[in-house]
Amino acid sequence: MTTPSLPISPTRASTLTTNLTSILTRISTTTTPQKPIRLVAVSKLKPANDILALHTPPHSHLHFGENYLQELLAKAALLPQTINWHFIGALQTNKCRPLAEQVGNLWCVESVDSIKKAEELDKGRGRLWEKDDEEAGKWKGVQLRVCVQVNTSGEAEKSGVPPSEAAALCRHVREKCERLRLQGVMTIGAIARSQGVKEGEENADFLTLREVRDKVVRELGMREEELELSMGMSEDFESAIRCGSDEVRVGSTIFGERPPRQDAKVKEEVEEGKS
């Protein structure tokens, strides 16, 4: 696949690079060299140009997160396949097959919260494996990573399985979905809890997810390092790392405020000579 040219504003690229460097510095000062943290740059509603600016040297950032299927499909068609895409949005069952089938470099689906969705992702990845064209051949036999999303806050509007049901779903993914690889457990905690945490305290959502992970590895006979914790966003990623997170998802602190969805552009036009 030939990647179309995407113009990059030098001024915008400089801003993005500064922001990303700041986040990476904060991550490195919160963790230890023995525990590298994966940073997913959440690029939803931001143009592909921004992603390319961070994916090219000097940063060559790999992991980017999207929330909407159509936006991800459009960006994946524009950008290099060396990007590792993460789908982190609420997942509709009928979108699972096309998501797993059409984005070969989809690195992880982080919002699996039902057996049906896991099975549909498995079928979609199977369809990709069955294609005989050269493009699809790159991904033949490559399992799609998934995280089980856990509703640690109990908020009715939040997606995710209750903590008590996480182990059963994890077991199903491991034992029944041969084209999927269980990567970890994920939560989007309550914002109010993050904002209310005092110095020296730990976020209750993060503690709950850690407890869920510990229970899952015991019940499934796994090692702790085989099941990651994906927790922490722009407002609380440092607290999440201190609680044991392996992956944090940061968006607005890198890319700035997002536009309304109806105004978002997949590709930004940059006039020649303009910065």
Blueprint (SSEs and pairs):
Layout: H1 10-30, E1 38-42, H2 48-55, E2 63-66, H3 69-78, E3 84-87, H4 93-102, E4 106-112, H5 115-130, H6 134-137, E5 144-149, H7 166-176, E6 180-186, H8 191-196, H9 204-220, E7 228-230, H10 237-242, E8 247-250, H11 252-255
Parallel strand pairs: 1-2, 1-8, 2-3, 3-4, 4-5, 5-6, 6-7
Helix pairs in contact: 4-5, 7-9
| Gyration radius from CA atoms, angstroms | 19 Å
Question: SS-based structural class?
Answer: alpha/beta
Beta-strand content bin: 5-15%
Helical content band:
40-55%
Quickly count the helices. Answer: 11
The helix/strand series, from N terminus to C terminus, equals HEHEHEHEHHEHEHHEHEH
Neighbour order of strands in the largest sheet: 7-6-5-4-3-2-1-8
What's the quaternary structure here? single chain
Regions with little confidence, pLDDT below 50 for 5+ residues: none
Mean pLDDT: 93
Q: What would the principal axes of the Cα set say about the shape?
A: globular
Q: In total, how many beta strands?
A: 8
Distance between the termini: 29 Å
- Report the sheet with the most strands, covering strand number, pairing sense and barrel closure: 8 strands, parallel
Overview of the molecule:
The chain is 41% helix and 15% strand. The chain has helices at residues 10-30, 48-55, 69-78, 93-102, 115-130, 134-137, 166-176, 191-196, 204-220, 237-242, 252-255, and strands spanning 38-42, 63-66, 84-87, 106-112, 144-149, 180-186, 228-230, 247-250. An 8-stranded parallel sheet has the order 7-6-5-4-3-2-1-8. The longest helix is centred in the N-terminal third of the chain and has 21 residues, at 10-30. The model has no long low-confidence stretch (mean pLDDT 93).
